[in-house]
Amino acid sequence: QKEVEQNSGPLSVPEGAIASLNCTYSDRGSQSFFWYRQYSGKSPELIMFIYSNGDKEDGRFTAQLNKASQYVSLLIRDSQPSDSATYLCAVNRAAGNKLTFGGGTRVLVKP
Amino acid sequence: GAGVSQTPSNKVTEKGKYVELRCDPISGHTALYWYRQSLGQGPEFLIYFQGTGAADDSGLPNDRFFAVRPEGSVSTLKIQRTERGDSAVYLCASSKSLGETQYFGPGTRLLVL
After folding, report:
1. Is there a contact between A47 and A106 (Cβ–Cβ < 8 Å)?
2. Could you tell me if A40 lies within 8 Å of chain B, comparing CB atoms?
3. Do A43 and B105 touch (CB under 8 A)?
4. pLDDT tens digits for A21-54?
């Protein structure tokens, strides 16, 4: 079992719809959770981080964390073609600082 | 302000050669991280530094890989006797201090022929 798992996609959504991305992790010691966006040929760019159970909203993005279920998700509201990218989920143990990444979910927003 | 910078942006070398990849972190960031990303996969941790010392090098795949950060700022990742399997994008990230958000540089694309 991989430490951080994501559906590779592609997740195809129409413009204006909600894109829902999921991520599960195996290490119960994980404390910090991050979503990065990566355009083709570019480096990862931080979108959001979340530390506590529940929802965290930032503009069109909402991160949701459920530590009991070892599950973190990202919702993208009013999806735009410019949101087409690979979204990487990453987790971090409090005692260590290396990020463990999932394989990424490719999102395609169709006009 | 300036972000993380990495040089070279691309490096083509022959199997068996030695390469050095450089990372210049965001000014004032004390923590520096190296990751490697193969095509279609997420980044994979290699090593991180807090100041000049390597705090965790557990991700280095073997003893052909070595990294230094002699003055606590710029870091160099060194790969000896390169192999075709070393071909990947090498990403550097920095953070204000350990445990804080990591910001990535543009990466160095390494191709070993």
Report:
1. no
2. no
3. yes
4. 999 999 998 999 999 999 999 999 999 999 999 9
